[in-house]
Predict the 3D structure of the following.
Amino acid sequence: MLQSILENRIHLANLPTRIEYLERTSKRYGFNLYIKRDDLTDIAASGNKIRKLEFLFKDAMNKRADTVLTCGGIQSNHCRATAAIAAKLGMKSVLILRGKKEPIYDGNLLLDKLLGADVVYVTPEEYKKVDEVFEVESERLRKRGRKPYIIPEGGSNEIGFLGYVNAAREMKEQIESMDIHPRYVFTAVGSAGTYAGLFLGKKLFDMDYELIGVNVTKDPEEKFVKRVENIIGRFLGNYKFSQVDFDEEEIEIIPGAGIGYAMSTDEELTQIVNVAKVEGLILDPVYTVKCFLHMLEYLRQKAVRDEDVLFFHTGGIYGIYPNKERLTKIIDGK
């Protein structure tokens, strides 16, 4: 049954993504750091979101939708990936973005517009009631003869999270063939779908690592613990799947937002520069660099030495460009 559920998707991503060993970083910190390169799933739709969107677009097409709506911040990776896949599949996309229209498009927003997305800008206060905005925009589309399909923030629901149940299965095959035995697996948490999928996959495929989520928002960690429970609960209920036993205490999500979601400190931007120079690897400012820094601190506090650790690179490279002025100063030592 699980096999058929995980195959009920549109195959879009370049899978499996490889696992790489970061030799110089491992020597510096004293543990064996491996990275799952989900930043290489695609180009226009790169990152972790495409795994979720494979399932969500399949559901949308099954329901004969011709337009997808979703939401996020002004530089949302998820919205950019949604726009890219919609264009690839001949569908329209409407993006509800938290922020103001900019005179010159940059980063993900530039790609959104290149990919033909219609953008609806909303204030932070309006975004708090995004479900109402979805309804208004959906009704507008229906009046024009369109068939809308709503994708939640981050693609994180009981359908989209299956992309990371599948990723857990993929990872298990890889670490067994590579003889890797991770004690810890780290991923960023912004809407909880990636974490929820990896958590359920860990249970279903009998893996014994500790899954640590790094919350890159200012919302409380308890919110995401509940969201993980709800996503998994709805999946188990919808598919009449055999019960999976787990305790709330097993869901480990730690704070890691720094000064705020999509807000970068000089330390974070400097870490992006350092990792790029040392490993030829680009972290993004919204998710992966925050997760990376808090992973290092977590492992330092735990005094982890000579053990395998796996880090999910969830993409987001286009978020670099809106930070180009500050990064230029750091690179030039100013």
